[in-house]
Structures are given as structure tokens and as C-alpha cells.
Amino acid sequence: MKSKLGKVAVVFLLIFLGAMVFIVKNDKLRIKDLFIRNKIPSLFLLNDNVPEIEVINSSGFRETITFTHMGKKALIFILNRSCVPCEKNIAIGERLYDQINAHADVLGIVVGEIYQASALQEALKLRFPLYVPENIQDFLRLFGKSKSSLTILVREDGKIEWIKIGDLNADDYLNLKNLILR
């Protein structure tokens, strides 16, 4: 009887230890995932759907931007109000505009006030619209907080085809152009 009870205890102990290892390992993965998600300004990945965005246009009117079933791609620049790389990236968007306008909508979203978006649009002589989020806190919950810029290429079906945080370079310019024109 003692030997049978000992075997049951050993089996129970092994199952318990296995369960503990499983729980600890999964907790570490969950903690690591939360850490990564908090370090990456955008909470979106390739092939994620871009949600509707409530914005205010340069005339002060509210609009809802929807990316699903648009019929063409969208190139979105999300900009911090005081960010030097953001101005560089938006200038790249302006250079791309003539070449891609027939194939993709180009727009910028400035995380700030409408006067800042209007001033930036005027200073850079942009031919595409700049908006500000209607509710900045909701927008930051969706797109994450960043001191840099975020550039997103959205496919016709509203899913992310290309995404980059920070400075765009010459390779990014060519890559975006090729992805949009193909």
C-alpha cells in the first residue's frame, strides 16, 4: 500500500511541477509580449485592419476616415506635432504624391491641434490633407504613443501592407512607390 501511495504522490508531484512550469513559461511570454507592445509605438502589425478614425479637417469639421473597401490604397503619415523626422517623412509623401495619386490616397494625421496641422500644411505646401484626431487620447490608445512618426500603407481591403516607425530613407521611398504602383 505504501509503495502505491508513494507512486501516486510522485505522479501527482510531477503533474503539479509540469503545470507550474507551463504557467510560469506562459506568464513570461505574456509579460514579454506586453513589454514588446509597450516599447513599440504602434500597436498594429502587417495584415491588421486599420480602424475608422474620427478626425477634424483643416476647416474644423469632423470627418470619419474609413479604410475598408476604398477601392485604392492609402498612405498615412502619423506625425507628432514637434518632430523633425516627421517633417522629413511628410516631405517624402509630398514627393510621392504626383506619382501615386491615381493609385493611393495620401493623408497625414498630426497628433496635436488643428492650427499646428494647418501651419505644417502651409509651410510645406502640401497638396494632400492633414487632419488631427478628434479625441487624441482615443487615437493614442489605438496607434500608441510615439515621439517619432509612423508611416502606414493600407491595402484596398483596409489591411496594413507596410508599416515603419521613424525616419523614412531612399529605400523606403522606392519600396513605397513600388508597392503602390504594382
Describe this structure in words.
- The chain has 182 residues and is α/β, with parallel strands linked by helices.
- The protein folds into two domains: 39 residues; 129 residues, Glutaredoxin (3-Layer(aba) Sandwich).
- Helices cover 47% and strands 21% of the residues.
- A seven-stranded mixed β-sheet has the order 2-1-5-4-3-6-7.
- A hairpin with a 5-residue loop joins strand 6 and strand 7.
- Helix 2 runs parallel beside helix 5.
- The longest helix is centred in the N-terminal third of the chain and has 38 residues.
- The protein is elongated, with a radius of gyration of 23 Å.
* CATH architecture descriptor of the largest domain: 3-Layer(aba) Sandwich
Strand order of the biggest β-sheet: 2-1-5-4-3-6-7
Structurally, the number of domains stands at 2
- N- and C-termini, Cα separation: 75 Å
User: Number of helical segments?
Assistant: 5
The helicity comes to 40-55%
Summarize the structure.
By secondary structure, this protein is α/β, with parallel strands linked by helices. It has helices at residues 2-39, 84-100, 114-124, 136-143, 170-181, and strands at 53-56, 62-65, 73-80, 104-111, 130-133, 150-154, 160-165.
